[in-house]
Design goal:
By secondary structure, the protein is of the alpha+beta class. The chain has one domain (about 5-185): Aminopeptidase (3-Layer(aba) Sandwich). It has six helices and seven strands, in the order H-E-H-H-H-E-E-E-H-E-H-E-E. Helix 5 links the parallel strand 4 (about 115-125) and strand 5. Helix 2 crosses helix 4. The longest helix is centred in the middle third of the chain and has 22 residues, at about 70-90.
């Protein structure tokens, strides 16, 4: 995706990033695959990067579409803009975070936590950082936090998304299917589970 061209388009079409709400989630100071990693509140300056992460998550899907690269880029920029605006309008209290390793942006994490409910809205990494245990490690931290807070966690995932299996390993169960996404929930686990 041509990010230099995308920069102006995404910033002009996407809703401005509000201040991140809620208790901040952190991964700083962790070892193993999370060594050198942090999360930061996303700002307007991150929009082109967030669009690139979004586009990379849809690359396989777009490979089967008989469009020019320019048409694919325009479509993905538009879809990112729609998703971005929707998330901010419908989840104003969510944390919209950029995942970094050694100060290099490598992914995004959108997380909402309120009362006895939490929602993993999105976790996506650039392709070169996938399948290295990073997503699993971050999900483990999120679930430990949800467990400590006594929160039921929900998420939506496409049935053919490989992450579906990861979520099952963490105790998520399918509780709904709207024909496009599976709704998955995970009850909080006590210290004895």
């Amino acid at each position: 995706m041509n990010t230099s061209h995308a920069t102006e388009n995404v910033v002009s079409r996407a809703a401005r990033m509000p201040a991140t709400a809620g208790a901040p989630f952190t991964i700083a100071g962790q070892g193993g695959v999370l060594a050198g990693m942090q999360v930061h509140a996303a700002t307007d300056e991150h929009l082109p990067f967030l669009c690139r992460v979004y586009a990379s998550a849809r690359a396989e899907e777009m490979a089967g579409v008989d469009w020019s690269d320019a048409e694919k880029n325009a479509f993905l920029e538009q879809q990112f803009s729609f998703q971005h605006r929707y998330y901010h309008e419908h989840h104003p209290d969510a944390q919209f975070l950029v995942i970094t390793r050694d100060n290099q942006a490598i992914g995004r994490l959108y997380w909402r936590s309120e009362g006895d409910q939490a929602a993993l809205m999105d976790i996506s990494l650039l392709p070169e950082f996938r399948r290295a245990g990073i997503g699993s490690a971050i999900l483990g931290l999120l679930m430990a936090r949800a467990d400590a807070d006594g929160q039921t966690t929900t998420l939506y995932v496409e049935p053919n998304n490989p992450a579906h299996r990861l979520y099952r390993r963490f105790g998520f169960e399918v509780v709904g299917d709207n024909g496009v996404y599976l709704k998955m929930c995970r009850a909080p686990r006590g210290k004895n589970q």
